Amino acid sequence: MPKKARGRNITWLDNVKGTGRLERYSLEGCRNLYVQVSPDGEWKTWLFRCRIGTRGPEATITIGDYRDHAWIRDNAESEANRLRNLCKKGIDPRRAAPVGAVIAAPKVGVPPVGVRERIVAVR
């Protein structure tokens, strides 16, 4: 069960030391968003937990490193909201393409490699 960082600001988590075991801290204002602290306190990670669909399996997703400046609380919350919306739709966010990912589309008019060799051999 995660500990609550209720009533404390995010800078409080900067000073959390390791307790000798893996700890998760939930934050006010964003459901299912946690900061996980390693046993020695060396690393902290943003985590998101959700249930896929209404009765699907639970998923735990690492959003990013807590100390990385790209993952400030606002960014982690917006990513958690995006993942939560996928879960509500029944889409497994672990298999969904991340934001900004470029999905390669097949080139139009160029046959796949195996077919191309067969076409050349027939001619």
Describe, in plain words, how this protein is organized in 3D.
- This protein is α+β, with helices and mostly antiparallel strands and 123 residues long.
- It has one domain (3-122): Integrase, DNA-binding domain (Double Stranded RNA Binding Domain, 2-Layer Sandwich).
- 25% of the residues lie in helices and 22% in strands.
- It contains three helices and five strands; from the N terminus they run βαββββαα.
- The chain has helices at residues 10-14, 73-88, 113-122; strands at residues 3-4, 23-26, 33-37, 44-51, 58-65.
- A five-stranded mixed sheet has the order 1-2-3-4-5, covered by helices on one side.
- The termini are far apart.
Could you give a short description of this structure?
It is built from three helices and five strands. It is of the alpha+beta class.
Q: What fold name goes in the CATH topology slot?
A: Double Stranded RNA Binding Domain
Give the overall form. globular
Fourth CATH level, the homologous superfamily: Integrase, DNA-binding domain
- Please state the second-level CATH architecture: 2-Layer Sandwich
The SS-based structural class is alpha+beta
Write the layout of secondary structure elements.
Blueprint: E1 3-4, H1 10-14, E2 23-26, E3 33-37, E4 44-51, E5 58-65, H2 73-88, H3 113-122
Parallel strand pairs: 1-2
Antiparallel strand pairs: 2-3, 3-4, 4-5
